[in-house]
Amino acid sequence: SLYVSEYFSQSAQKLSFYSWYGNAKLFHFRVPEDTVLLRWLLQASRGKGPECTDMEITVHFRYGAPPVINPLGTHFPVNATVRPSYNISITLSSTVQNTTVVNITTPAAGDWFIAAHLPEAAGRIEVKGFSTPCPYMFQADMFVLRLTDMPVLEPGVPMLQTIISPAKPLHVKVFVPKHASRMRFELRRCLTYEQKACAVRVVLGSITLPQSFQRIVTCVGNVNCSLALDSPPWEKWLQVMVESLGAANASVSMEMLASFTACRPGSTSSFLNFSSLNQSQTGPRPGSTGAAGSLAVSTGEASRNVSNQRNSCLQNHPVVREDLDVVSVRYRLLNGPSVPVTSLSPTLLLLNLNSGMDSGGSLVVNLLLNKTSVNLANATVAACVSAASPVLSLNTTRNCSTAFFQGYPLSVRSSSAEAMLIVLYPQTDVWFLSLQLICPKGQGECNAAEAKVTVFAYLTPCFNDCGPYGQCSLLRRHGYLYAGCSCKAGWGGWSCTDDTKAQSVGVQNLATLLLTLSNLMFLPAIAVAVYRYYLVEASVYIYTMFFSTFYHACDQPGIAVMCIMDYDTLQYCDFLGSVVSIWVTILCMSRVKKILKYVLFVLGTLLIAMSLQLDRRGVWNMMGPCLFALVIMIAAWVYHGAKRRHCYPSSWKRWVFYLLPGITLAFIAISVYAFMETNENYYYTHSIWHVLVASSVAFLLPPRDKHKKPWAWSQKLTCRYQICQNDREELYAVT
């Protein structure tokens, strides 16, 4: 045998602490056909700084679709079926780098996914630039060993093979045709080179994670060994591995035979399917012969279908796959939403999910029983959703499993006429929905009965669009797209249905009121600015108060939300107003000349607007203007102090009752903003930030110029005459 090794690698990704599925870093690989050995090389590393501590990295594996994980232990939707993922842990302690190898023999060909993440996020809101997080990197490489000339076992044709040594097992493959209901594998005439009885182990199927359904049988002696598989995977290659359990240098010869039992399908005619598809898309054509002709065709077809049911083992009903959007598909039955279900043979619907881009959503199957269509009160319609091959024996075994897949069972009856199933991240394959009528006293009771079941099946990115307390996000890894729910207001779970830590409506209203009404503390600062003739500064404070109020009204995670314009616009205006308010306040305190002050106002605002557009959450967007303005203020104060030959500001009352309280409030506000905010306490700590910053502005604004008279509204009524009189006096003096 000729083996070929191949190597696949993807770029390293920076890991994140886990709070929702978007924090898990996904790796997507495709394992080629005839692979006999798969080796994952997992490399994890961390930075060397003092902020880097011991860390445990969790790595999940899954075949066919991204792994369904639940690191936070939250609840899934009610009708969702979840099977635990296969995962390992990689610890980074004293070593900066850790390399782990995972081996898988006879892996299934197709898509394989790896997801890696750090432990649960602490929930602390960190200001970008104040602290340097430790970088944790993860990279996955894949090595495969592929057999280039794997022998093909043809159905019904015996094949003689030899195992040279136990170290080199024998690999063969057999193609499973469509509509195969049963496969039988036989091992005959197994002898060693000394013509003695042999001992071998036969493994049918490939390994899939998180669950593997390989069939293993041990054959000892001259007795023929056989293994039967119900519902093998249709139109796929099935690997067979035979290992010798004898001596090290003993060769073993044997004869292998594979046979299949075919299932004859019965379905409605192609003419009727084409006619239904044409009518559903274009509607009835004018000038047609009317309903009588269609009724005659349907009646004739119905009589033929009854005879087909007795001669076939399943009833096919055509399904149209309608692509709506990315990871969004609707399945439509050509002959109407209702399908007839009998006890003679299962009704089969094919749901195509093998495009390679369908595994990143949720498959939803909803069954609704028409109660008037069932003649027997105790009859049950059993259903099974499975991948690769359908379940064809619901009436006998009542087990929703195929040869290599554990299906998802459903059932409807008169007392419970509706059932729903949600398959999270369905694996890439052809899926089948099997339905059959079952009676408690035996199938003879159901021979004449027929049930009508309405089937709704669709693929959606997020089930129920993550509900009112979640946001469905479309994630991307290279060219692969998948969806995840980001929850808010304390809600959690895969689809944001877990209300264990959810905020009540009262708490949501309180959070909105605190974050919005706390901006009213700018009113004293506005009043002080207007009273002291700082009209430009007052305008900036009004702008900041307005947009901060409505930004936080729009930024709320719950139902107490009000957006007067686009969210991104509100956020940008809020950030711009906050930084410009600090800029103009410090420049006003510097007491530079008016023309220079207004030039700095405009120039600084333009530069701040540019920097916020580049990086809205960078700490230097706020610290940079503050430090530059402080440098200007200190330089101006030193200049005034040197000119007057005493400290500036000269009044001790100005320092004790205004400057020191204002500076103290500003430092407390910065400390709360930078070090105390978390996701849980955000609504009141950020409200405290609003109150402290607005209060500090009212204290820090300097007094008005001495030549400015206080606002006197009674005197302003005669200002027009007074101005004219002053102008005449000046003109007279000039002439």
Please outline what is shown here.
The chain is an alpha+beta fold and 735 residues long. The protein folds into four domains: 3-147, Jelly Rolls, CATH 2.60.120.380; 159-262, Sandwich (Jelly Rolls), CATH 2.60.120.680; 315-460, Jelly Rolls (Sandwich); 505-700, Rhopdopsin 7-helix transmembrane proteins, CATH 1.20.1070. The strands form seven sheets. Strands 7, 22, 23, 24, 26, 29 and 31 form a seven-stranded mixed β-sheet that branches. Strands 20-21-25-30-27-28 form a six-stranded mixed β-sheet, covered by helices on one side.
Question: What features would you highlight for this structure?
Answer:
735 residues; alpha+beta; Jelly Rolls; six-stranded mixed beta sheet; elongated
Describe it for me?
The N and C termini lie far apart (116 Å). Strands 7, 22, 23, 24, 26, 29 and 31 form a seven-stranded mixed β-sheet that branches. The C terminus is likely disordered. It is elongated, with a radius of gyration of 37 Å. The chain has four domains: 145 residues, Sandwich (Jelly Rolls); 104 residues, Sandwich (Jelly Rolls); 146 residues, GOLD domain (Jelly Rolls); 196 residues, Rhopdopsin 7-helix transmembrane proteins, CATH 1.20.1070. The chain is 29% helix and 33% strand. The longest helix is centred in the last third of the chain and has 25 residues. It contains twelve helices and 33 strands. It is of the alpha+beta class.
Please report the number of helical segments.
Answer: 12
Shape: elongated
Rg on CA atoms, Å: 37 Å
Task: Please provide the count of β strands.
Answer: 33
Task: Calculate the terminal CA-CA distance, rounded to whole Å.
Answer: 116 Å
Structural class: alpha+beta
Strand composition percent: 25-35%
Flag low-confidence runs: 269-307, 716-721, 723-735
Output the CATH topology of the largest domain: Rhopdopsin 7-helix transmembrane proteins
CATH class of the largest domain: Mainly Alpha
Question: How many structurally independent domains?
Answer: 4
> Kindly state the mean pLDDT as a whole number?
84
Q: Helical amount among residues, as a percent range?
A: 25-40%
Biggest pleated-sheet summary? 7 strands, mixed
By CATH, the architecture of the largest domain is named Up-down Bundle
